[in-house]
Amino acid sequence: MLTRSAIDAVVLPALAEDAPWGDVTSETILPAGSGATAVLAAREPGVMSGMAVFTATMLACDPEAQVEELLGDGERFEVGMPLARVTGDARGILRAERVALNLVQRMSGIATETARYVDAVADTSARIADTRKTTPGLRVLERHAVRCGGGSNHRFSLSDAVLAKDNHLAVLTAGGRDLTEALRDARAKLGHTVHFEVEVDRIDQIEPVLAAGVDAILLDNFTIEQLREGVRLVAGRAVVDASGGVSLETVADIAGTGVDVISVGAITHSVRALDLGLDIELD
Amino acid sequence: MLTRSAIDAVVLPALAEDAPWGDVTSETILPAGSGATAVLAAREPGVMSGMAVFTATMLACDPEAQVEELLGDGERFEVGMPLARVTGDARGILRAERVALNLVQRMSGIATETARYVDAVADTSARIADTRKTTPGLRVLERHAVRCGGGSNHRFSLSDAVLAKDNHLAVLTAGGRDLTEALRDARAKLGHTVHFEVEVDRIDQIEPVLAAGVDAILLDNFTIEQLREGVRLVAGRAVVDASGGVSLETVADIAGTGVDVISVGAITHSVRALDLGLDIELD
Amino acid sequence: MLTRSAIDAVVLPALAEDAPWGDVTSETILPAGSGATAVLAAREPGVMSGMAVFTATMLACDPEAQVEELLGDGERFEVGMPLARVTGDARGILRAERVALNLVQRMSGIATETARYVDAVADTSARIADTRKTTPGLRVLERHAVRCGGGSNHRFSLSDAVLAKDNHLAVLTAGGRDLTEALRDARAKLGHTVHFEVEVDRIDQIEPVLAAGVDAILLDNFTIEQLREGVRLVAGRAVVDASGGVSLETVADIAGTGVDVISVGAITHSVRALDLGLDIELD
Amino acid sequence: MLTRSAIDAVVLPALAEDAPWGDVTSETILPAGSGATAVLAAREPGVMSGMAVFTATMLACDPEAQVEELLGDGERFEVGMPLARVTGDARGILRAERVALNLVQRMSGIATETARYVDAVADTSARIADTRKTTPGLRVLERHAVRCGGGSNHRFSLSDAVLAKDNHLAVLTAGGRDLTEALRDARAKLGHTVHFEVEVDRIDQIEPVLAAGVDAILLDNFTIEQLREGVRLVAGRAVVDASGGVSLETVADIAGTGVDVISVGAITHSVRALDLGLDIELD
Amino acid sequence: MLTRSAIDAVVLPALAEDAPWGDVTSETILPAGSGATAVLAAREPGVMSGMAVFTATMLACDPEAQVEELLGDGERFEVGMPLARVTGDARGILRAERVALNLVQRMSGIATETARYVDAVADTSARIADTRKTTPGLRVLERHAVRCGGGSNHRFSLSDAVLAKDNHLAVLTAGGRDLTEALRDARAKLGHTVHFEVEVDRIDQIEPVLAAGVDAILLDNFTIEQLREGVRLVAGRAVVDASGGVSLETVADIAGTGVDVISVGAITHSVRALDLGLDIELD
Amino acid sequence: MLTRSAIDAVVLPALAEDAPWGDVTSETILPAGSGATAVLAAREPGVMSGMAVFTATMLACDPEAQVEELLGDGERFEVGMPLARVTGDARGILRAERVALNLVQRMSGIATETARYVDAVADTSARIADTRKTTPGLRVLERHAVRCGGGSNHRFSLSDAVLAKDNHLAVLTAGGRDLTEALRDARAKLGHTVHFEVEVDRIDQIEPVLAAGVDAILLDNFTIEQLREGVRLVAGRAVVDASGGVSLETVADIAGTGVDVISVGAITHSVRALDLGLDIELD
Q1: Which of C25, C159, E124, E183 shows the smallest number of beta carbons within 10 Å?
Q2: pLDDT digits over F208-244, tens only?
C-alpha cells in the first residue's frame, strides 16, 4: 500500500541528512567492495511495519544488494526472530543501517502500540483511528503503520474532510445564528464527496448537529456516562467518534459505550521506537 | 541557533503535507478575513524548544500575523503558563495550528526529557549527548532541542566524525593485523579536523585503542564496575563516552563512574510529545 | 481559497520555464529601471478566476509593483472592463505578462464555461461537478476555477475518496461473489471519513449497490429515461451522480431527471482560453 | 526528441498530484499483485503525440509493466485503432490511467489541431508555428506535440530570441530617436546567435525595421491585403511572420499572401482533449 | 540583468552546502545579536561582476542587513577600493562571507579576464564570445560575468541554437550526400528562430557550407593565414566565428584577420579567483 | 568514495542547464538511434579525478551505454592516453559530452595541481589541505579531487568544525577578557566531537591559545622564520596548520619549517581545466 515514490520521498532525503558528504568511518576502514550480510532482528516482540522502507533504504545505498523479507507488514513477531536479511556491499549496508532502523523502529513502534489499542477493544465494534498528530514529513508512513497495527485512518489532512471544532462552531453561530441551519448552509458549499464531521463538547449540542445531516459527530472529552448517553441520542444517524482522555487503561471502557470510532493521538505523537537491531556479519 | 532556512525546510513541506489543497473546514465556515488571537499554553511543565519554529509556522500561513514570544528556547515553564501569543487571520492560524503544535510539542518533549537526564547527572562532570537515532528529516531541529535541554550533541552525521564500531574493528584486524597499528593507519587517511572515536566492548580493547591516539573511546554496554575500571585505565588520555543501558534510573550511577559523555538514544528516538495547546479566540 | 504556496508552486516554475536565462528583448531594449502601467482587460465577457495568480506573477517579477485588483474571483465582467491595474518596473511587467495571461485566461475560461453549465441547470437542484480530467500540475488552480464558475468539486484525487468503476466491480465479484456483500466488505476496510461512491452502467446494478450502503452512486452513460428511472430507484438513499454524454445541449435535460450531481470532464479537459489582454503603457 | 528527464519532470509530479497518499479504491478492492492488460484506443481520428509519455507514466506506476507502442508520434490513426498495449500490475495501471490520458489526450489534441492548420496551407510554402501561449509547466511537451502535427516551433522562451513588440518600439524611439538606428544599436548588444525579430502593426514600419537588418519581421493583425503588400515590400530580406486573427477559416488565405510563417496561439491555448480511452481487462 | 530568482538558485544551495547545520564557530563565540560592519575590498585591480550576488548572499543570512553597493557590475576598480559595505548581524555576515566571496571572486575573475581579451582586440571589430565551457550550475552567472567584462555570449545551451561540428557533418554527408543540400535539408527542419552555425576545419568546406545559407560559420583551429583567407571567402555572407588556440598572446592577431567573433573557452573554464576580501569590523 | 547520489546531485541539473529543451543540433542532424563510440583522451599529463562522474553523465543521457573505465581516480596519466571508452547512442553521447568534460576537466585539474603541491613537500611530513574556497555547488566533488591528488581535506563546512579567526578572537576578548579562559569557555559549549582550531596572526598569541587546549592552531601569514619559531613553541601540543602566501614556489620552504598541515586555497579557487578531449567516432 506504500508506493515506492512515497517511500523514496522520505528515505532519500534522510540518507542525505545522515551522510551529507559520505561515511568517513567506512571509507577509511572498510576496503572498497567488501561484502556483508545483515539480519534485521527483533529484540522485543511487536507488529511489523515498514518492511518496504527497510528494503528501499538498503537498495538506495547498494542497488545490487539482495534483500530477503522474512515477514510482511502487519505480521506479529517474537523476540529474536529474524525479520529480513540483506547481502551486499559492506559500506552500503552500514550507510543505510541507521536510517533504515530509525524508520522501521518508529513504524513498528506505532503498529505495535496501535495493535495494543485494537486488542483492547477487540470484543466491541469500535475502531481505533489515528489523528493529524503525526511527525511532520512522515504522515504517509505513519498512517500506514497504524493500518499495520489494525487501526483505521482518520482524515489525512485539512483538505480531504471537514472536522468542525468548537472554534468553528463559535464563528458559525456568531450573532445568534441557528446551529443546525448554519451547518446545513456550510455543508451545501462543499463537494458531495467531502466527509462532514462536527465536534461537540456537550450533550445538548448533539441534536442540533445531527439535524443538519452530518456524516459523523465527534464527542470530545465526554465521560463514559456521557458517551453512552451520546450514543443513545445519535441512534445510528451518524458515525460516533470519541476523543480525549484515551489511553490503554480507558479505551476498553470507551469502546464499551458503543461509539464507532475512537481517535487516539498517542499512537503517533508519542511513539517509543521498537527495539529492532541490525546484526552485521562482514565477509 | 536555528537558522530560518533550516526551519523553513521542515515547516513548509509539513504545511503542504497537512493541507495539500487547502483547509476545507475553515474555508467553508470562517469568513475570509476574520481575525483571531491564539495563545500557546503549557498543559504540563517543561523546557521550551522550538519557539522560532512556532513563529515561522504561523507566519508561513499568515505573513501579517503578529507573534509575541513570551519565553525563549531553553527556558523552563510551569503548567498554565502562556508561551506565545499570535494575532492574525483566523484561517491562517487554524491552518498552522496542528503543524506548529506537532513540531513544538516534539521539540519541547525532547528538551524536557533531556533536561531530566542533565539534572540527574548535575553533580558530576558528565555530559548527556544525543545520537543519530533522530527522526528522519528533523535532525537539525531535534539536535537543537537537545541543546535546549542542556544536552550536548554527538557527531551530526556519518560525514563529520569517525565512530568505529565492532564491525569496523573486525575488518580492520582481519588477518591478524595489530589493532593499534591498524587504527593509526586508518587515522592517517583522515583530514586533521575529523574527530576519531572508537567503540570497545571489552576492557582489554582499551589499551590498544588508546595507543593509536584516538580522540575519544566509547565504552558500550559496560557495567558500572567496568566503566569505573575503564575510566581509570584511560586516565585522561581520551574522552570517555558511555552508551548502552542508559535510562533515568541508571544515568546517575553511570555518570558517577567518571565518564565524560553519556550517549542516550531515548531522548530522541522515543519522545513523548509535551502537552502544549493552542487556545484560540476568534474575533 | 487559493493559498499563496499553491499559487507559487505553479507560478515560479512557469516563470523559470518562460525565461530560463532572462528576457533578452527587454534587457536589450528597455533601460533598467524604466516604469510601466498595465491594465488587465476583458476582450470578451466572462467570469473572473485567478486574480491572486495574476497578482502573484506580477509580484514575482517585480516585488515592488503595485497591483490593484478591480474584480474578485467569481465575479462576472463585460467586454472592455478593466480587471486589474499594475504599476511597476517595465521589464518585470513584460516578463510576467505571458505567464500571467496564460494562467488567468485558462482559469477564467474554465470559470466561464462552468458558469454556462451552472446557468443551464439553474432551475433544478443539480450541481455541476468537475472530474480528475484536469491539466497535470494545475489541479488546485483548475478546481478553484470551477468553484469560481459556481461549480462543485468532485473528489480531488485517487487518495481522498473511493470511486469504484466497472473494472473494480468486475474484480470484486469475480468468482461469483455477491456484489452487495463484496462492497460492504470493501467499505469496512476504509476509514470512516472516506466517501464511498460506486459507478454503475445498468439499472439492475443500482439496488445491490445501494444495499451495501454507499454514499453516492454514479450513473454512467445512462439515457435521460434511464436516469429518471435511476433517480426513482435510489429514492434518496444515496447521492445520485451522472456522467457521460454531458454537453451544454444535454445538461438541462440531465438535470431535469432529478440527479444530484452532474460530472463534466469538458469544463477542464477542453478549455478555450478566455480572451484577456494586458494593455501596457510604458513611462 | 522528448528526453526521459523532460517527461519525468511532468509525469512524476502529476502522479503525486493525482494520488498524494495512494489510491484508496484500488487498494481496497484489487488484491495486491493482480494483473491487467490495457489498450490505449482511439475514439476519434487524430495524430499521435505523447507515446513516450504514456509509456513513462505506466512504468512509473509499475516498473515491471510491458508496454507495446503500436504507433509512433506524428502518425495518424483512425477511430477504433489500438495505439498501445500495456500488461502489468492492475493497481499500477489504474493509478497511471488518468494521468497518462490527461497528457496524451492533450498532446494528441494539439498535434491533431496543428495538422489541420498544416493541411490547410499544404499547397503554400508557409509554416504553422506555435507561440508562448502554452500551458505553464508543459511547454516542452506541447512544443513537441506541435512538431508531431507538422508545425514549427517559434522561440521557446523570452531567453532564446528577441521579439520586439509595439511597447518595446515605443521605448526605443522615445524622444524622437530614429527607429532603424535604434534597432541596429539594440541588436549590437546581443550575442551573434540570438534571432532578432520585430513586430510591426503598420506597413510604413516595415522599411525602417528591415533597414536595421533583422532576421524576421512579424506582421501583426494585418489584413490579407496588407499582408500581401508586406510580403512584397520585404522582398526576401527577412523572414515574414504573420499573427492575429488566424483560424482554420482564415489560415489558407493568409498563407496565400506569401508569408513564411503563421503563428497560431489557438493550437496550444485552446486545446480540446482528443478522445482516447484506456480499455482495461483485468486478469 | 541577473534576476533575483537566478541568483537565489545558486546562493541558497551554496549557503546550505557551506553550513548544513549552522556555523559552530560563530554560534559558540559571537553573542546572539551582536552587530558588524564589513567592507568588500579589492586586493588587486579588476572589473566588477556579481554585486547583486554579494548583496543577495548577505541578505539571505541576515534579511535586515543594510548593503551599500559602491560600484556597479562592469565597472573597473583599483587595488584597495571599497566595493560594497554591509552592516548587520555579525553571525549572519560571517556565515555569508565565504559563499559571497567564492562567487564574487569567480565572477569578477571572469569579467576581468574577459576585459583583457576585449581590450586586446579593441581596435578591431571582433567580439570576444564565451563558450559552453562554464562551471556546471553557474552558467547564468558566468555568462553575465562575461558581459560585464565586455564580452558577448555565444549560444547558451544545446537547445537554443545549432552548432554543427565535424561529427555532425560526417553523419550528414555519410553515403556521399552533398553537404550543401544536406545542410539545407537539416535547416528546414528547424524553427525559423534557431540560429544555424556550422563548424569547418578546412578552407574547402567554407563554400559548400555557405551555399546552404547558414547564419554563421565557425573556423576551428585555422592559422592566421587561413583565417584571413576564410574571411575573404565568406565575404559577409555569414558571421565568421573563430575558435581554437586563442590566448591573450594570439587574440589580437586573430582579430586582425577580420573575423567577427572569437570564441574563448579559457575565460570561463580556467578562471583565477580575483583577490577580493571582506574586512570585518565587529561592534 | 563519491556516492551516486552526490554525483547525480551535480550531473542531473548540469544536463538540464545545458539542454533545457533538447539538443537541436543532434536532433536535426543525427538519425534517431544512430550509434557512436567515444574515447576520453588526455591531451596533457595529469592525475585522474571524476571517472565516476564521467560515467554517470554518459549513463544519464543514454542508460544503455557501455562505459569502460580505463583508469581509476588518483592514477596518473600521460599525453595521449585513453582514459575511458563509451559506446552508445550518438545523440546521448553528444548531449553528455560538454557536461562530462566540464566536470572531469575541472576535477582532474584540481587533482593534478594538488599533486604538484604534494610532490613539492614529499620529503617532509606536511600535508596539503584544501579550504572552503571551492566552487559553490561542487564542494563534494572538488574535495574528492583534492584527495585524488594526494591532498587532505580541511573542515568541510562551517558546521563540522570550529575555526576561530581574528574577528572571533576580537569578540571573545572584548572587554579585556583573558584569551585562554575565553577559549576554554567557548570550547566547553561544543560537543566533544567538534574539532577546535584557532587562527593566530602573531607569535605571542600561540601560548595563550595552546593553554586553552585546542586541537589545532593555524598560523596565518607567518614568515618562514616565524613558522619555524611557531612550530618550536607548539612543540607537539596541537596540530600546526599554516596558511597565507602558499604557492608552488613557497610550499617546500613552508613544509620545511615542520608544520603539520598547509592549507592552500588556490588548488580549488583558481583551477585551470585540464586538457581532456572526447574523440567521437560515429557509426
Answers
A1: E124
A2: 999 999 999 999 999 999 999 999 999 999 999 999 9
F4-60: per-residue pLDDT in tens?
A: 899 999 999 999 999 999 999 999 999 988 999 999 999 999 999 999 999 999 999
Indicate yes or no: CB of F143 within 8 angstroms of CB of A15: no
Which grid cell is F221? 601569514
pLDDT band at residue C283 under the 50/70/90 scheme? confident
Query: Between A36, A109, A269, which is nearest B105 by CB?
Result: A269
Q: In angstroms, what separates the C-alpha of B104 from chain A's closest C-alpha?
A: 11
Contact between chains at C156 and B19 (C-beta distance less than 8 A): no
pLDDT one-digit tens code per residue, F109-133: 999 999 999 999 999 999 999 999 9
Task: Give CA–CA dist B274/B101, Å, rounded.
Answer: 9
Distances (CA, A) of F150 to B185, B193, E174, F50, F270: 15, 17, 47, 14, 18
Longest dimension (CA), chain B: 76
Chains contacting C (3+ CB pairs below 8 angstroms): A, B, D, E
Rounded to whole angstroms, how far apart are CA atoms A214 and B25? 13
B contacts of C6 (beta carbons < 8 Å):
21-22
pLDDT (tens digit, 9 = 90+) per residue, C222-234?
999 999 999 999 9
Under an 8 A CB cutoff, do E143 and C12 touch?
no
C-alpha pair distances (Å), A264 with each of A67, A130, A234, B42, C273: 34, 5, 21, 20, 48
- Which among B3, B51, B142, B147 is the top mutation candidate for probing chain E, defined by the most E β-carbons within 10 Å of its own β-carbon? B3
Grid cell in block for residue C33:
529601471
Task: Tell me which chain F residue has its CA closest to the CA of residue A31.
Answer: F1
Q: Does D5 touch chain F (CB under 8 A)?
A: yes
Class of residue C35 by CB neighbours under 10 A (exposed 0-12, middle 13-18, buried 19+): middle
Nearest to B28 among A134, A189, A269 (CB): A189
pLDDT at A94: 96
Looking at the complex, does the CB of residue C168 fall below 8 Å from at least one CB of chain D?
A: yes
> Is C165 known to be catalytic?
yes
* E152 and chain D in contact, CB less than 8 A: yes
Q: Is the pLDDT of residue F64 over 90?
A: yes
Q: Which of A113, F274, D257 is nearest to E270 (CA)?
A: F274
Nearest chain D residue (CA) to E196: D193
DSSP A152: B
End-to-end CA distance of chain B: 35
Burial of F193 (0-12, 13-18, 19+ CB in 10 A): buried
Catalytic, out of E98, E139, E155, E228: E98
Active site residues of D: 98, 133, 165, 199, 220
> What pairs with residue C199 in β-bridges?
C218
Instruction: Report how many Cβ contacts below 8 Å link chain C to chain E.
Output: 17
This model of the complex carries an ipTM of 0.95
Could you please report the per-residue DSSP string of F188-226?
A: HTS-TTSEEEEEESSGGGHHHHHHTT-SEEEEES--HHH
> Cβ of C65 under 8 Å from any chain B Cβ?
no
State the Cα–Cα distance between residues E127 and E148, nearest whole angstrom.
Answer: 14
Contact A133, B98 (CB under 8 A): yes
CA C275 from chain center: how many Å?
18
pTM score, two decimals? Answer: 0.96
> Does F1 sit within 8 Å of A12, measured CB to CB?
no
Taking the Cβ of residue B156 and every Cβ of chain E, the question of whether any pair is shorter than 8 Å is answered with yes
Residue A78 has pLDDT above 90, yes or no: yes
CA atoms of E197 and E213, how far apart (whole Å): 10
